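Hi support team,

I've been running sequence recovery on a batch of backbones for a student project. Most finish fine, but this one hangs at about 90% for roughly twenty minutes before it completes. I'm not sure whether the input is malformed or the queue is just slow. I've pasted the structure tokens below so you can try to reproduce it. Let me know if you need the job ID as well.

Thanks,
M.K.
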């Protein structure tokens, strides 16, 4: 596949729909081939997406000093990620050209799951953007439904028990990053986000019409997803690749914002509950040999190793880095 298909997933929302099986086959084909698809017919309204985009813009419009006050720390990976804060831990030393805001599954500090895994807890919400919590959580819960539809379809396509993924996603470690990419001059080297694979199960993004997301094809070229207005771009991450024994592919992608305009993006990263151990549920494909992943441990490692002076545990499997 040298292009990313657009699939109307509305038949998935009706168990009796005559096109259900056909849609599941199309999703499966995209995920086993290019690892990316665009979806429409999600049931998420344009208004929900527009409100989310406006909220993200308002959050990044806050004064720089406020962002630093609410910046992520080693102990709490929630809040602002100032521009240029992290360099990819690939040794290149070149910082990505974005500022971000990290959010995790919203869980009360008193929830018993916090004692089981300290990565759970309440998010930081900037008080100046009073609608932020309601707007983000409304968008998030709608994407939870879309993610479950896609996970159910993939379980069916892989001949797994229908609730396989649903059970793994009860009190998940799903997280979001709000992102702002200033425009990059045509001759300015570097990336908005350097080429990487996602470490989650699957990612859902409402693409900014200014463009900038690029996806690697199997022959090493880079293509741009074609996503109709109101649609979402979906990609498979390392966890679904592992669960599927290498059938569903986690594909490298990157962002370069040469549009001349500000770019805003808010990827939703579906990650199972902390105690889920992801390992192949089907015999692994030839040549696919990756160790199992404990979600809580892996998530802690992904976040810890974002700090450039932290190095990955020897035992930690890939952390989204592309080894060339
Ligand atoms: O902003 C985008 O479109 C993609 C961001 C991305 O790939 C990521 O955060 O993992
Ligand atoms: Fe990504």
């Amino acid at each position: 596949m040298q292009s990313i298909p657009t699939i109307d997933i509305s038949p998935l929302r009706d168990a009796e729909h005559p096109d259900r099986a056909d849609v599941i086959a199309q999703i499966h084909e995209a995920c086993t081939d290019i690892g990316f698809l665009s979806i429409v017919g999600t049931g998420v309204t344009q208004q929900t997406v527009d409100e989310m985009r406006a909220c993200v813009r308002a959050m990044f419009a806050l004064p720089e000093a406020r962002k630093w006050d609410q910046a992520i720390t080693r102990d709490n990976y929630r809040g602002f990620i100032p521009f240029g804060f992290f360099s990819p831990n690939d040794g290149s030393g070149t910082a990505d050209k974005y500022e971000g805001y990290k959010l995790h599954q919203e869980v009360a500090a008193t929830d018993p799951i916090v004692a089981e895994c300290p990565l759970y807890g309440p998010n930081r919400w900037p008080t100046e953007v009073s609608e932020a919590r309601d707007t983000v959580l409304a968008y998030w819960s709608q994407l939870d439904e879309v993610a479950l539809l896609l996970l159910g379809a993939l379980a069916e396509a892989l001949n797994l028990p229908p609730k396989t993924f649903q059970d793994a996603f009860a009190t998940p470690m799903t997280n979001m990053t709000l992102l702002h990419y200033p425009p990059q001059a045509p001759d300015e080297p570097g990336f908005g986000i350097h080429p990487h694979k996602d470490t989650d199960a699957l990612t859902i993004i409402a693409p900014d019409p200014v463009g900038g997301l690029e996806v690697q094809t199997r022959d090493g070229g880079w293509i741009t997803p074609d996503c109709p207005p109101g649609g979402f771009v979906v990609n498979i991450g390392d966890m679904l690749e592992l669960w599927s024994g290498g059938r569903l592919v986690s594909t490298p992608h990157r962002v370069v914002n040469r549009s001349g305009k500000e770019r805003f993006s808010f990827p939703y990263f579906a990650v199972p509950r902390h105690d889920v151990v992801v390992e192949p549920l089907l015999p692994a494909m030839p040549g696919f040999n990756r160790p199992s992943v404990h979600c809580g441990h892996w998530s802690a490692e992904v976040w810890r190793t974002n700090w450039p002076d932290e190095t990955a545990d020897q035992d930690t499997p890939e952390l989204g880095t592309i080894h060339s």
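--
Follow-up from support: It reproduced on our side and the slowdown came from queue contention, not your input. Residues 6-306 form a domain with the Jelly Rolls fold (CATH 2.60.120.330). No action needed from you.
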